[in-house]
């Protein structure tokens, strides 16, 4: 979430790189998807890895991740509906459900099945929704700073107030649309999370915008989940500590999923 500081993540993601990620004619293309022109870029070869940005973000914010992961994966970076270079002529209120369905249709059009997904913030919400409603498309999903519902039970009070106060005063249609997402969506129930069958990596900064207990709620309700809390990190931990982030995400995607507990080890139930 957190549109108000999305510019920080975009700036932090940029490096001196000759490849204009997010505006690359050689790698970019459009697809007609659910009444919009969805923009995406593809880099590298291998297992498909879909990158989903946060509220107000775009492919440009994935610069460091694309650079790192394109050597081992086919990286598919997407501008969500109403974001970046994707063109939505309707100007209707965005919904996470619609945005997740857009990604599903795009993957169908690209003939991509069983992809890995990583989502930052709102992109993490889309990743969870895809795993719930389009499970055949998702092999593994990692989310950083995702939330199941809006409001102070999930988000720190000051940030929730900032969102609501902005909605009261803004006259900009795009800002209003994006902040409405933060203020009134999503609506993912614990029972929805319990339907997810694929492995999930729940990630959070230890000083995130999302309450740590909320991230734990997500972890506790997904049958096949791992949990990573990045020390000394905010909602933008993937930008603040890119080497650590890349190491953890690579481990999750490249190694067999494990959820052996200490109890399993002590009681002899752990598989040898």
Major β-sheet profile: 8 strands, mixed
Strand line-up across the major sheet: 1-2-4-3-5-6-7-8
Percent range for β-strand residues: 15-25%
The topology string of helices and strands comes to: HEEEHEHEHEHHHEHEHHH
Overall geometric form: globular
Helical fraction: 25-40%
Structural class by secondary-structure content: alpha/beta
Q: Which regions are unreliable across 5 or more consecutive residues at pLDDT < 50?
A: 1-14
- Average pLDDT for all residues: 94
Report how far the terminal alpha carbons are from each other.
41 Å
Computed CA radius of gyration, to the nearest angstrom = 18 Å
Number of helices: 11
Number of strands: 8
Please write out the topology.
Blueprint: H1 6-13, E1 28-33, E2 36-43, E3 47-52, H2 63-69, E4 73-78, H3 96-109, E5 115-120, H4 122-133, E6 138-144, H5 157-169, H6 173-184, H7 190-193, E7 200-205, H8 212-221, E8 225-230, H9 237-240, H10 242-254, H11 262-266
Parallel strand pairs: 3-4, 3-5, 5-6, 6-7, 7-8
Antiparallel strand pairs: 1-2, 2-4
Helix pairs in contact: 3-4, 5-6
What can you see in these coordinates?
With 272 residues, the protein is α/β, with parallel strands linked by helices. Helices cover 38% and strands 19% of the residues. Strands 1-2-4-3-5-6-7-8 form an 8-stranded mixed beta sheet, sandwiched between helices. Strand 5 (115-120), helix 4 (122-133) and strand 6 (138-144) form a beta-alpha-beta unit. The model is unreliable at 1-14 (pLDDT under 50).
Features:
alpha/beta, eight-stranded mixed β-sheet, 19% strand, single chain
Short description:
This protein is of the alpha/beta class and 272 residues long. The chain is 38% helix and 19% strand.
């Amino acid at each position: 979430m957190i549109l108000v500081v999305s510019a920080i993540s975009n700036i932090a993601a940029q490096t001196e790189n000759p490849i204009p990620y997010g505006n690359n004619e050689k790698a970019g293309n459009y697809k007609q998807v659910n009444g919009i022109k969805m923009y995406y870029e593809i880099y590298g070869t291998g297992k498909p890895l879909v990158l989903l940005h946060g509220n107000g973000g775009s492919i440009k914010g994935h610069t460091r991740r694309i650079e790192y992961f394109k050597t081992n994966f086919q990286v598919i970076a997407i501008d969500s509906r109403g974001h970046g270079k994707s063109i939505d002529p309707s100007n209707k209120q965005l919904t996470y459900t619609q945005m997740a369905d857009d990604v599903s249709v795009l993957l169908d059009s690209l003939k991509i099945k069983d992809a890995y997904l990583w989502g930052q913030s709102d992109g993490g919400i889309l990743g969870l929704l895809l795993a719930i409603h389009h499970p055949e498309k998702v092999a593994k999903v990692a989310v950083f700073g995702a939330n199941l519902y809006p409001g102070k039970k999930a988000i720190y009070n000051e940030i929730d107030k900032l969102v609501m106060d902005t909605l009261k005063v803004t006259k900009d249609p795009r800002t209003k649309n994006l902040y409405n997402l933060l203020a009134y969506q999503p609506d993912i129930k614990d029972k929805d999370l319990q339907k997810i069958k694929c492995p999930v990596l729940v990630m959070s900064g230890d000083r995130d915008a999302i309450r740590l207990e909320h991230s734990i709620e997500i972890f506790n309700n997904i049958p096949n989940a791992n949990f990573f809390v990045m020390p000394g990190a905010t909602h933008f931990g993937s930008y603040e500590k890119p080497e650590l982030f890349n190491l953890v995400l690579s481990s999750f995607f490249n190694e067999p999923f494990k959820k052996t507990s200490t109890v399993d080890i002590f009681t002899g139930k752990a598989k040898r």
